[in-house]
Each structure stands twice: as C-alpha cells, then as structure tokens.
C-alpha cells in the first residue's frame, strides 16, 4: 500500500504533537490558576529543611504538572529572598521526582477516550460561569488532549516503519553501544531544550516506541536526555535575576548532569533491571500486540515512564546527602565581597530545641530581635552610600521581613496554657517589641529608598545629612553598640534640630532646590519622624516589664521542678 506522506504522516504527527503540547499547556495553566499562589505560599513555608524541600518540590510539581514551572517558581522565590539557596536545591530535586508522575500518566492507555473527554470538558469550559469551574475544566481538557495527541502521533508515526529510508536513518539512533547511547541522550537533550518541555519530548518518544519506530531501549535512552535538556529553561529564567537565583538554576543543571553522567555507565545494567521489573507491569515491552491488524508496542510508554521515575528517585537519593556541598560550591560562583554581608533572612539564635525552655528561649528572642534591629540600622548605611552596605534596599528589606515573621511565630509558640501570668505578659511584650521593630525597619527602609532614588543639590544635601545624623543619634537609645559614625562634637554636646526646623529649612530652599528634591526631603522627614516615635516606643516597651526578674523566677521554677522530679519521680501536688 502506497503511503501518502502528507496525509498519513505529517498531518497526524504535527497535529498530534500540537494537540499534545496544547494539552500540557491547558493542564498546567488550569491547575496553576487554581493553586499556584497557594503553592507558592506553601513552598515558602514548607521549604525549611532539605527533607521538607524535597517533599514540597515533589508534591507541588506533582500537582501543577510542570517541573519547568516549578523550577522557574523556585528561582523567582530565591530571587525575592523568600527561599534560601540550600532549601531551593532540595526543592529542585523534589521537582524532578514530581514531574515523573506526569510521565506515568502519559503512559496510560487512554488515547481513544481523549477526544470525547476533551470535547466534554471543552463544553463545560465554554458554558461555565464560575472561574473556578472553568479552570478545573481547562485542566481536565488539557489532560484529555494529552492522550488524544499522543494517540494521533502514534498512528501517524506507525507508517514510517514501511519507509526503508527512515528506518535506515533511525537505525543510527539505536542505543546499542555507549557511543550511540550518548548520541541519543544528546539529541533528546537538544530537542527538549528547543521545545522547553521534557514531557513533550517523552511523549514523542513514547509515540515512536509504541509505533515500533524506536526499540524500547532507545526510547528509554531518549527519556534520559529529556531530563538533561529540561534544565535549559531554568537557566534562561535566571539570566536577569540575582546571583542566588542563578545559583538555584545552576543547581538544577548540575544535579541533572551529574545524574546522567552516573547513570550512563550503568545504563545497560539498569535496562536489565527494568526488563525484570516489567513482568509486574505487563510483560516484555519488546513484544508486539496486534491492534486492528497492525503491530503496536503498548508497553514501551510504560517502560519509559517507569525508567524516568526511577532515574529521578535514584538521582535524588544519591545526591541528597551532598546538598551542603552543592550549596558551598555554588555559593562561590560569581561571588563578590558584597555577598559576604550577613544573610538576615535566616534566624541565627532561634533554636527550636529551646521552645520548651522559657528561661533560655526568651534571651534567644531578645538576641534575634536585636539582630533584626541591627539589620534595620543598616538602611542608614545604605542611605549614606557605604560600600559595605547591601546594594539593594528592597532586597535587604525582604530579608528583614522574613526574619520579622520568624521572630513573631517563634515567640507566639512559647505561649502555653500552663504558663504563669508574668511569663505570658513577657511574651506579649516581646511580640509587641518585635512588631515595633518591624515597623521601625520599614520606616528606615523608606528613608534609604528615598535617599537612593533622588540626586540632591548642594543646598539640599546638608539637610539630608543632618536628618540622617539625627536618626543615627536617636537610634543609639535602643542600639548603643551599632557601629555608625560618631558625631563630630564631644559626647553630650551634639544637638540636632527638630524635624519642624528641618522642614522649615526645606521649604525655604525656594529656587535653590527643585520641587522633586523638596518633596523627597519632606517625605524623608516624615519617615524619620515615624522612626523616632517607634524608637521611643521600643525603649518604653523594654522597660514596661521587668524581664530579668521574670526570667529569674522562670529559671527558679524550672530548677525546683527538676529537683522534685529527681527526688520523687513526680511533681507532688498537695492533697485537698
């Protein structure tokens, strides 16, 4: 029978590939519209430790069905300072596992049902009034179109077996030696890099394998290359972002490259293991099944999906113990002196092991709050253009905001029902101080932001300098050890004008300063005035409770309890 290349091959293959990729896009868009904001917030909370990061990455990628979207999301969160480099590396490891769920779904034999299910959900999408229902229908429609597109591709690729020229070319892509294996891996990586979807590449490979164009071993080799090629998207997403965001993308790239380099020498051994494992998943993938008088290989997609899943799980288990090494090596990539500035997004003193020891947890909170205050004072360095200060006030503020939330959550968790009133009162005081410190940091961020954005003339700059020195002097009431520039006059003799006087001097500049300059200075003075009010409020809050006395009583109560436990095994309660 003569084959019409356009009608029998090009139309179903190109059409099927387009429908397949459109299905992937619809499914990802529908699911992400329903849950991506919640997933992003969940990720920011959950990725606290490497193990939690892997689990969070696996779960979220399994839900949104796009390791590319997941990796880009992680890179964005790292860029925003919400997630650190170390947990980001573990999340990316989990994302590689999560995406294999989609490969497993693609392998399901649901092709014939794809069109009718796609049509049903398309009608629901068109006529639904609720945005939530439309997004659910979009995701389901995408899911159905994936199978229909794969079914079309498989049918269109099958006639290629009758074209000697094509089969001769494909014989060169047979993974029967290490050289040919590497060639297959690199070709699949290149295709994946071009279309930005490992799932699409694996879908094409499954179609070729199911049609008998590629033998199942070669199809598996191509899936290995797809995992390598998908790293290009995260790299592209990080190009214009922060160094840490780039490092997260490099982690994704190096993670997959190392995994492939380790797996390639073991490939033929792993194929033997897979062939043995396939007896529980239908049998030998090399055995053809006759469908409508034509040979098909329905177990090839199953074998590809299984191999992709176990490759990523094996890769994660192998490299997980080395997350710390990844972080140390990647943190040196493109490093500058500015990055040696302390990372204030991560608490230094808040130890979860102390949460049940009130007498030791409170001093830790006080130290962390003081550290938060020091981070806020750095905005004065930024405003003055200190070369050792953080270069981006917005990025530094994001770090302090994360630290502020951690302090409040840690402090609130100290509240237990059986605590005496004086301890509860101290916890409340610490929470208020942390809140005032966060507000002070925000005001000082506004000070730095306004000074950095405006170029002041010779008449306006002295007013700005005086205002910053005034805030510097006020800050010493609650942060006496912070290393800002000392006043030029002897201690006790430096007098700074009130905000009202500085405001009057600004208004009297007249033609000596532009309207934008004067407006910026007035806004700056407003921020400084708020900051000084908050400084006084923090000072008053510290004095509102005799903290040392409460801590002494708490330590004494704990010591008495431990002594009673040592003596009798139980805490005696007087009989009534």
UniProtKB/TrEMBL annotation:
One example GO MF annotation: sodium:phosphate symporter activity
PANTHER family associated with the record: SODIUM-DEPENDENT PHOSPHATE TRANSPORT PROTEIN 2B, SOLUTE CARRIER FAMILY 34 SODIUM PHOSPHATE , MEMBER 2-RELATED
A Pfam cross-reference name: Na_Pi_cotrans
Organism: Shinella kummerowiae
Name listed for the protein in its UniProt record: Na/Pi cotransporter family protein
Compartments where found: Cell membrane
GO biological process, one term: sodium-dependent phosphate transport
Keywords assigned: Cell membrane, Membrane, Transmembrane, Transmembrane helix
């Amino acid at each position: 029978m003569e084959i019409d290349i356009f009608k029998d091959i090009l139309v179903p293959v190109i059409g099927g590939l387009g429908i397949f990729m459109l299905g992937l896009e619809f499914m990802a868009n529908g699911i992400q519209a329903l849950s991506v904001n919640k997933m992003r917030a969940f990720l920011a909370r959950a990725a606290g430790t490497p193990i939690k990061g892997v689990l969070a990455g696996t779960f979220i990628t399994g839900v949104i069905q796009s390791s590319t979207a997941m990796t880009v999301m992680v890179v964005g969160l790292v860029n925003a300072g919400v997630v650190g480099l170390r947990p980001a590396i573990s999340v990316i490891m989990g994302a590689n596992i999560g995406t294999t769920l989609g490969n497993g779904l693609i392998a399901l034999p649901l092709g014939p049902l794809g069109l009718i299910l796609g049509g049903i959900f398309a009608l629901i999408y068109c006529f639904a009034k609720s945005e939530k229902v439309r997004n659910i229908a979009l995701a389901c429609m995408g899911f159905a179109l994936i199978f229909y597109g794969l079914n079309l591709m498989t049918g269109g690729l099958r006639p290629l077996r009758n074209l000697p020229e094509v089969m001769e070319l494909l014989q060169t892509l047979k993974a029967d030696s290490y050289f040919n294996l590497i060639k297959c891996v690199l070709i699949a990586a290149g295709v994946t890099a071009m279309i930005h979807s490992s799932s699409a590449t694996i879908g094409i490979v499954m179609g070729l394998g199911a049609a008998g164009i590629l033998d199942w071993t070669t199809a598996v080799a191509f899936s290995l290359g797809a995992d390598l090629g998908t790293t290009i998207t995260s790299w592209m997403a990080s190009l214009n972002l922060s160094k840490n965001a780039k490092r997260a993308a490099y982690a994704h790239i190096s993670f997959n490259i190392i995994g492939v380099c380790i797996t390639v020498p073991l490939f033929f051994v792993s194929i033997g293991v897979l062939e043995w494992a396939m007896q529980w998943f239908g049998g030998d993938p090399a055995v053809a099944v006759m469908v409508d008088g034509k040979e098909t290989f329905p177990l090839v997609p199953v074998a590809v999906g299984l191999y992709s899943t176990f490759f990523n799980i094996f890769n994660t288990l192998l490299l997980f113990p080395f997350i710390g090494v990844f972080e140390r090596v990647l943190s040196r990539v493109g490093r500058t002196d500015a990055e040696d500035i302390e990372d204030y997004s991560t608490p230094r003193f808040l130890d979860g092991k102390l949460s049940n020891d009130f007498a030791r947890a409170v001093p830790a909170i006080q130290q962390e709050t003081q550290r938060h205050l020091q981070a806020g004072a750095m905005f004065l360095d930024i405003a003055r253009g200190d070369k050792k200060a953080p270069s981006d006030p917005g990025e530094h503020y994001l770090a302090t905001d994360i630290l502020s939330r951690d302090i409040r959550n840690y402090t609130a968790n100290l509240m237990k029902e059986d605590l005496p009133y004086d301890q509860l009162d101290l916890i409340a005081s610490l929470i208020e101080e942390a809140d005032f410190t966060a507000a002070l940091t925000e005001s000082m961020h506004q000070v730095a932001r306004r000074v950095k954005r405006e170029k002041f003339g010779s008449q306006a700059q002295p007013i700005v300098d005086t205002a910053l020195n005034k805030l510097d002097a006020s800050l010493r009431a609650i942060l006496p050890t912070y290393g800002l520039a000392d006043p030029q006059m002897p201690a006790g003799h430096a007098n700074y004008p009130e905000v009202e006087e500085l405001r009057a001097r600004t208004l009297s500049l007249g033609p000596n300063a532009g309207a934008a300059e004067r407006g910026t200075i007035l806004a700056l003075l407003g921020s400084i005035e708020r900051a000084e009010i908050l400084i006084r409020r923090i000072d008053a809050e510290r004095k509102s409770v005799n903290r040392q006395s409460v801590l002494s009583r708490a330590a004494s109560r704990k010591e008495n309890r431990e002594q009673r436990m040592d003596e009798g095994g139980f805490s005696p309660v007087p009989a009534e």
